[in-house]
Design a protein that fits this description.
Layout lengths: L4 H11 L4 H6 L10 H4 L3 H10 L4 E3 L6 H10 L4 E3 L7 H4 L10 H14 L5 E6 L4 H14 L6 E5 L5 H13 L4 E3 L2
Parallel strand pairs: 1-2, 3-4, 3-5
């Protein structure tokens, strides 16, 4: 953690030195590292990297940048692999098969199974308002209701929500204790 870009590249090259097998199968592989400040903080920087790259892009993005990143990578016919962007819409993600994270329905199904197995009767759903989090929280709400568990609280917290507002919303949980919380 906290390493600069050159240190990260040096460690990468030390851990994966060239050898005959690597040269044979990965001869055209070039790894370029971008710091999170260079790419993840602004959508214009992400658009630039996705549109100018000609190779596979591997990365982690803020939730609100997941769908645009996949849309842009499909538009430019690039491969994009992420580990924190679940498949949301099949119409947009049809060509991307390299998802490293489960889909929204898989997360929803898994969470509802946990709630049923643990026999939780009181559940609160707390979600962010950005990216795919609202869709996931609504999907979990619907699935829990289908299996007979009605969430007692459904809270959405925005990125710019004040500390006092968050404390007021979460204060509701003290009055009615809940067994499970789902949060970004």
């Amino acid at each position: 953690m906290g390493r600069n870009l050159h240190e990260t590249e040096r460690v990468f090259n030390e851990r994966y030195p060239e050898n005959p097998i690597c040269r044979k199968y990965l001869r055209d592989l070039v790894a370029k590292f971008q710091t999170s400040g260079n790419i993840c903080d602004g959508s214009s920087k992400l658009l630039h990297v996705l549109s100018t790259s000609s190779k596979t892009i591997v990365g982690s993005f803020r939730a609100e940048l997941c769908s645009p990143a996949y849309f842009i990578s499909n538009f430019y016919n690039h491969t994009l692999s992420t580990w924190n962007c679940p498949q949301v819409f099949k119409e947009i993600d049809t060509e991307q098969k390299s998802r490293l994270s489960p889909s929204i329905p898989a997360i929803t199904s898994g969470f509802s199974r946990v709630v049923l197995e643990m026999k939780w009767k009181s559940v609160a759903i707390i979600s962010g308002k950005m990216g795919w989090w609202p869709l996931l929280s609504q999907s979990i709400d619907v699935r829990l209701r289908e299996v007979g568990v009605v969430p007692r609280h459904f809270l959405m917290i925005g990125q710019n929500t004040s500390q006092e507002n968050i404390e007021n919303k979460l204060g509701l949980l003290k009055k009615i204790p809940c067994r499970g919380l789902f949060s970004p």
